[in-house]
Structure formats: structure tokens, C-alpha cells
Request: fold
Amino acid sequence: MEYVLDRFVAEVRSAINATGNVPADLVDLQPPKANIPADLAFPSFRAARELGVTPPRLTQELAAALQFAPDSLVAEVVASGPFLNFGLNPQRLAIEVLGDITRMGDTYGHDDLGQQQTIVIDYSSPNVAKRMHVGHIRSTIIGQSLVHILRALGFAMIGDNHLGDWGKQFGVIIAAIKRYGKPTSEGEMALEALEERYVRYSNEMQLDEALDDEARHCSLRLEQGDPEARDLWQWCVETTLEANQKNYDRLGVSFEHTYGESFYESMLTDVIALALQQGIAQTDEDGAVVVPSLDNLPSFLLQRSDGGTLYMTRDLATVLFRVEQFRPVRLIYVVGSQQELHFRQLTALVKALAIAPEIELIHVGFGTIFDAQGQPLSTRRGNMIYLQHLLDDAVARARKIVETKNDELSEEEKDRVAEQVGIGAVIYNDLYQDSRRNITLDWERMLATEGNSATYLQYSHARCCSILRRAGAGDPRVTDAATLSLLTQGTEQQLIKHLARLPEAIREAGQRYAPFVIADWCYTTARAFGVFFEQCPVLKADSPSLRDARLTLVAATAQALKNGLHLLGIQSPERM
RNA sequence: GGCCCGGUAGCUCAGUGGAUUAGAGCACCAGUCUUCGGAACUGGGUGUCGGGGGUUCGAAUCCCUCCCGGGUCGCCA
Reply:
């Protein structure tokens, strides 16, 4: 897909090539810094050195030799010392950007570079028999945003919620239920009761080796299909899925599949046999199946000495299944950076086994969330924050703010807006910065309504909608060139240039697996709109055609902001 | 100890395949507005870009080294 700025760069490049003054591979074009009054720059240092001239001389000669058609997107060429700066034609920029947005609507910014290739993305992945907490929200939110972004880029996305429903921890849960009884409550309450049993059993297990053995035994019985263990397990899975779905619905999260680790149970012996057969793994004296160091990474196990399987075993089986089933070009894991070594080992193992030589494994890691005192959140410390409570709290606070800000809304609308604003704040808190960073949970920051916040972005969108509403009936958007050509003022052009950058922001976000690039775009765009809003009257513009043109710009801003927010998983209310 | 990530303004963060004067938000101070939603806009920065070396005409960005914080290193996930 080629957007306006792509065509602009292409025009500059081909014009430079046409002069024959600079070899094509030395033409490195980049956006100039913000303080430079230009839209594209050619820093000539490297080219000048190769050609044996001074940079300023090269740029001057080029500036003199360059030719552009009268209706070119390139309106200005200025040699500025070693830089050759290019400026956009304001009229054509306005016409083409607003034309694109008006025509493409919800798909503005989308691309076809994914060519419908399949990507399987593994995210959220909470544990069964536990409530979702802040530890799960990052994977869930980042993963869902990546699904939106990569889908917009033309990839066929398959989201898989890789439920933690297997392994030794499940032995503990089953042993605990048998020891203390099955919870009688439902939903999150039932999960809370299960957690309580799990913690109690774990603590007692520390002191009593027999309980530890019992848990391990239960884990094995479950793996071997013991009916009683299976029934308890099934109940836990169903209870958990039902409770989690409420959170997913509120966050706008959905998956193509929810296989869970248990799904791969029947494939585990084959996987271990494969590794042994290929000589990648070997059996220890005590019976454990070990994979010795690959790519200088620490060695690891595929099977415990008691015959049980591990996380790695299941992840390897999962890779095999996904490759067979979906034929993806890429497997993405949105999992905390604590597990980085695990995924490097998995990647090395997949490579050594030559299972999927064409397929990329990508671990999108993210930092840990700490409480206000800088402590890790944990059940044991008693400072754990559960997802449902977090969402409820954020929405309740948003409700209070809505109450004071806008009493024109009906109670029902206030509730809906509060939900959108509160949830938006929670999502944005996870996406506005590079996800590798650790996060300190700061309620003030998270629910801020000013500055770089979800609420400010939503508010900007709502202001656009307000203007459009007041403009009267019908779609105010026009596309005729003469009208759109009127948008040449500085603040109008600044806003249009931001709108023009959305496609590139989406590409970069996808390429870096970095939703914050979109967040950043939304914020700078909302800022540009704020300035425009102050300086340029729309409804009371000097002429009817300027009014039309500005209304079109406002409509395009609303559309583009909505598209950007959607990629983050944030709703765009029209009133708030 | 090995490996990975982070260290940029009081706080939270962008910028890091070198290149024109290092940027935002919050907080603080001072302003704007009888006009489209003030959840707004404008102005105000003496920053050891963690320290020190090195490469370069030019380094927050590349190389080396050290310091600090977080993570991780076979029978958890």
C-alpha cells in the first residue's frame, strides 16, 4: 500500500536519481528533526565522501539540478549546508491525505504488506484455578494490541490463549481440593477459594514431604487420565474460563483458540522421542531427559526423572502443532521477560530439531508491575491486585469524573462512558510506553485525564465529534480539490501531516512489536488537533468553503484517532 | 560469576543502524478565552543523556571498561 508520504519520498528519490549526480544506494532520505522547516532531508555526508566532494557543494549542485513537475508533491527544495531539505506541497498534501481518510474510513492506515501470511500469537495465558491479576493484564493487553496492529498490516492473525491448565501446580490444586474440599461458590469467588486452598496446601507442603509427594502423585494421575482427577480438573477449567470471559469482554479481547497446555498432552511422548531420536536430547542416569547446551545457552530438561513433563516439553509440542495446523510464517509469544531464557532455549531447540526452518519464533517480553512502594505484587505479600478489581475501580473513578464533567448525559450513557474511559485508562497505562520497561502502578498516572493519557485522546475525539454534530445533518466531508486546497495555514498543515503519518506509525509498531508507537502517534495527533482547535474556527470559518474544508479535516481527525485508538484496543466515545 | 533488559529534566517517559539548536507529559510559575466541549491552549528548562576511555570533522546514539537497578541460569511456569 502506498500512502501520500510514500509517494512524496518516492518522488524525491526518483528526482535525485534522474540527475545522475548521486548513486542510488547513497541516497538515504530521512525525516528532519522537528526544528527544521522541512518534511524530508537528504543528509549528504556519506554520498559526498564517496564522491569526493564536500557535502555543501553536493547539496547545492543537486538543488540546482533537481526538477519536479508543477503539480508534484514536492514543493520546495533547499540546500542547507550538508543537508538537502524538501518541503511538501500543502495543497496536494491536504487533498490526498483527506481524500485517503475519507475514502478508506476505518481501514485508513492499513497495509497489505502481510500478504495474508499467517501469524500465531500466544497471549494472555492465565493459569486455571486462579483469578486473573495484574500479572496477566500486560500479556493480555499488549497481545491484543499486536493482534490489531498486525492484522491491520495484512497478516492473518490467529490468537491462542495458551491456558496454564497443566503441570505440577495442577497436582497441588487437585491434592488441595481433595484435602480441603471443593469450593461451593461460583465465578471469581470460586477461583478465590481455589487460590486459598492452593496457598494453604503449598505452605503445608513445605513442612510435610508427604504432601509434596501427594501433589506430584496427583499431577501424574491427572496425566495418566485418572477419572477423579480429570473431573476435578475439568470443573476448574470451566469455572476459570467462565470467570475470565467477563474480563475479556470488558477489555475487548478475543481469541481464535483457547487450547491450553493440556491439549498437547497426547503429543508429549512423541516430542520427547523425537528429540532423543535426533540425538538432541539424552537420558540422564536418573532417567531425566536432558537437552545439553545449545547455542551456548544453559542445558534444560524435557522430562523429569519421575517421568513427568515440563513447560518446555509442552511448548515444544505446541510449536509442532501450530506449525502443522496453521502453517504460519511466525510464532509470537507475549510473555513476561522473566521467561526470556526459556524462549531462547525453545528457539534453539526448534532450530536444532529442524522442525520449522522457515518459521520465526518471536518473544515479545515485557517488564514487571510493581506497587506504589516498588514491591512486586504477590498473593503472599498481600498486595496483589486482581484484574476484575482493577477494572471496577478504574471504572468507578471514571464514573465520578464523568459525573462532574458532563451532566447532559443520561445515567445509562454515563455508565457506558465511564466503562470506556476507565478501561481505556487501564489499557493505555500498559501501552503508552515501551513494554520492556517495568511499571510502577500509579493510580494518579493511570487515571490521569490530562497530558499523555487515554482520556485526553478520547476527549480529543469527542471534541471532533461535537463539532461535526453541531455542523448539522449529513456527512460534512467533501473531497473536491479546490475546497481542500484552502487548508494551507500552519496549524492546519501540522495536523494534516500528523494524519499522514498514521500508516508509517502502524508499520513501525508492527515491525517493532511496539504498540507504544501507535500511542505516541495518537498523542501527538491529539496535540496537533488541540492547537488547530484553538486557532481555527470551524463552524464560524470565514467562508462556507473554508468551513467545509475544516469540517472535513475534523472528520478526518476523528476517523484517524479512532483508528489509532482501536489498534490499542481503546474505545472512542462520541460524547463523554 | 555468565547471559538479558533498563539507567536521558524533580517524577514518568520518547529519541539510540552518528549529522541542522537533545524532546514530551506530570509537578511548579505566569498567561489566554463574552466564539465550535477549559478533560483545552500559550509561555517559562543551568539536563554531568549513569561514570570513564576510544573511533569520528561530528556521539545520548558506535566500540571498550566500570557502576547502579531489575530479571534469569536442569527436574515451577
In short: The CA atoms of residues 48 and 55 of chain A lie 5 Å apart. The mean pLDDT of chain A is 92. Chain A has three domains: 4-88, 118-257+327-369, 387-568. The longest helix of chain A spans residues 227-251.
